[in-house]
Amino acid sequence: MTARMRRWRWPRGEPTFPMTITGHGRIRHTHLPNPHRLVELAGHVPEEWGLLLVNDARGRRWTLYSPDPDYTAMFAPAAHTLNLEFAVFTEKFPGWNSGWHVS
After folding, report:
1. Which of 47, 61, 77, 101 is deepest in the core (most CB within 10 A)?
2. φ and ψ at 87, to 5 degrees?
3. Which residue has the higher pLDDT, 77 or 9?
4. CA-to-CA distance for 29 and 37, rounded, in angstroms?
5. Contact call for residues 45 and 39 (beta carbons, < 8 A)
6. What is the C-alpha separation between 52 and 61, in angstroms, rounded?
7. What is the pTM of this model?
8. pLDDT tier at 63 (50, 70, 90 boundaries)?
């Protein structure tokens, strides 16, 4: 049986490349308002999630979630371009939502 990966997308759609990183951070798993969707996408429960706040190529704001907060910390200082292949992007950032907020 093969599992089908589903991405967390609110609203429908996904960020477009290139993205400009405007900020980053960490949030403890226990402080997420609705962690179940992220756990389903990541496949495990990290103690902390890494966050990237970005503007995509269309100028839309997105919050990207990574189960590897050290990976997101590598993007500090902020305000540089993120241009990853989509497969790498979805592996490192399995969840995202529109806007700069944790939901």
Report:
1. 61
2. -65, -40
3. 77
4. 12
5. yes
6. 11
7. 0.82
8. very high
Token pair recorded at residue 3 = 């599992």
Decide if pLDDT at 14 tops 90: no
**Radius of gyration of the chain from Cα atoms?**
13
- Give backbone dihedrals phi and psi of 48, rounded to 5 degrees, phi first: -130, 150
Mean pLDDT of all residues in 47-51: 95
Sequence-ordered list of residues with C-beta below 8 angstroms from that of 6, at least 6 positions apart, any chain: 40, 41
The two tokens of residue 72 are 């997101």
Nearest CA to 49 out of 94, 99, 100, 2 is that of 94
CA distances to 14, 36, 45, 70, 92 from 33, in Å: 21, 9, 14, 22, 21
Q: What are phi and psi of 67, to 5 degrees?
A: -75, 0
Question: Of 55, 49, 48, whose CA–CA distance to 15 is shortest?
Answer: 55
Q: Are residues 52 and 93 in contact, defined by beta-carbon separation less than 8 angstroms? A: yes
